Amino acid sequence: xxxxxxxxxxxxxxxxxxxxxxxxxxxxxxxxxxxxxxxxxxxxxxxxxxxxxxxxxxxxxxxxxxxxxxxxxxxxxxxxxxxxxxxxxxxxxxxxxxxxxxxxxxxxxxxxxxxxxxxxxxxxxxxxxxxxxxxxxxxxxxxxxxxxxxxxxxxxxxxxxxxxxxxxxxxxxxxxxxxxxxxxxxxxxxxxxxxxxxxxxxxxxxxxxxxxxxxxxxxxxxxxxxxxxxxxxxxxxxxxxxxxxxxxxxxxxxxxxxxxxxxxxxxxxxxxxxxxxxxxxxxxxxxxxxxxxxxxxxxxxxxxxxxxxxxxxxxxxxxxxxxxxxxxxxxxxxxxxxxxxxxxxxxxxxxxxxxxxxxxxxxxxxxxxxxxxxxxxxxxxxxxxxxxxxxxxxxxxxxxxxxxxxxxxxxxxxxxxxxxxxxxxxxxxxxxxxxxxxxxxxxxxxxxxxxxxxxxxxxxxxxxxxxxxxxxxxxxxxxxxxxxxxxxxxxxxxxxxxxxxxxxxxxxxxxxxxxxxxxxxxxxxxxxxxxxxxxxxxxxxxxxxxxxxxxxxxxxxxxxxxxxxxxxxxxxxxxxxxxxxxxxxxxxxxxxxxxxxxxxxxxxxxxxxxxxxxxxxxxxxxxxxxxxxxxxxxxxxxxxxxxxxxxxxxxxxxxxxxxxxxxxxxxxxxxxxxxxxxxxxxxxxxxxxxxx
Length: 692
Fold this sequence. Notes:
The chain is mainly beta. Helix content is 7%, strand content 44%. The strands form eleven sheets. Strands 2, 4, 5, 8, 13, 14, 15 and 20 form an eight-stranded antiparallel beta sheet that branches. The protein has a seven-stranded antiparallel beta sheet with strand order 3-6-17-9-10-11-12, with no helix packed on it.
């Protein structure tokens, strides 16, 4: 190599400048990020620790190292040796991402060829953490060959301190060496050659002298261990970083040896533990950068722009299943949702329709698509490109009827038969319409759903527009719209994005989705019997959902599926929405069957977590106790009788066992409220009364 890693160290900078940089970096970043998951006490602690750090080292917050092949402006300075970089033309992606195809961009990759291929780089200076380690290391790769020991991402030279994310006998491991002691955790499953894989590892040191190491693979926790450790502060993340490369020998002139044969799509190091919603969600493997994880919140490493995972909003909505929305890196915006259930009633396939909108607000430059997602694995199975009247339309809704999809937009319902799938079939399919199944309807056709023998299509209209309606068109035994039959027509509230029906306890319910404000959405619940041609009957309940909600679709087991357009390139980088929820997700029917007063009727209050609130009634503050069965962040919310959120607090990782928090409530109006606690996939509830 042309120069050794140690040659890259910068000259010493004025101590006062370094001091101010450290304090501003930590205080500024923690105010924006940690305050959402912690307290002012934590912020003051970290800022104080930053002020006490030795000079000559840098404090940072966010992504401290990134390698994106083909993207020099977003990558750390790198030193490759016999590493070939270019767009990876995967044969499975040929129809969409090869030259002459659908026009989607191919993901770039760096090709390593064993011991002769080495890569290293990163920040000029070492990086300080006031109380650490707290870090996340990630790689996206495809191996062509396996070996006994392979270093994927590391900052260790020989036996010196640092971390290593690697493979030991094909199984992921993560090791952190501090003060001559190495803490190590190993995964459970082999990484297979020829398959794309996303491996992430985290290290988190807590004030209780516990070091927790975790390994995630493809959005699922594979291994985790909490180890007693008394570590000194500050913790130094030393540079440089070695990618697919093992460094041995003297620190000032290490010997480098390549350890992988295969493709590396990206490598990232963060100086914090990444958001759990990010680490525990399956990527769609849609052929784009990061296997489909949103890439448009990658920024230069010099600023303080929040990384993608830290922008994800947390909501009280009890999500039972979620996937990252595919094709958002290709500038598509999700709209419609449809579901195919298996014999057990669970979603087997989830369909999402998209229209194309570039960051510069150009429309109709790509044909609209419908993506078929394997709901068991969370991966894209097929992507269909529309070729009918709605080929480039704003496809606001889709409904699955038999073996065909109805697509709604521009006053048209267009029927597309879905070809049967067989293993080995192509991933990208041009979908042709059934011209005999296409119908112009009275509605704007903003959304559509099917229930029993009726296709329901409706209008999205704002307050300045005419009254919106829901139209019910009868279907024959072949799933075609009955010819000549007049639709049933009901007025509906304004700004409705999607509607679907479900039977629970012998009652037919109607659920309607809309965005309540710029921060959250709501699903309104009606009884089918209360719909009336002459008036809008008041809804029974309003359930809070993530902002950006679109079309609705029920699986047979009662899981309501929908998606949020807030997690897309245009709405993030151009419209600058403050919310970010890049998922297609499902909510159980039991959490939609709320009483008129708001809280879910099932499961019963305080059925989990041993929630107790005292005093009750209360005036100024609440003492809330609960029991955790595993290490987890905790979210505590208060809802009033109308289901409106009155307070929301998120607490960082807490250890298993009894916990207690205090919440001030003197600014809330008198009345009955519900305390809802979410932690580790469990939920506890308790009603309280505030008096004045």
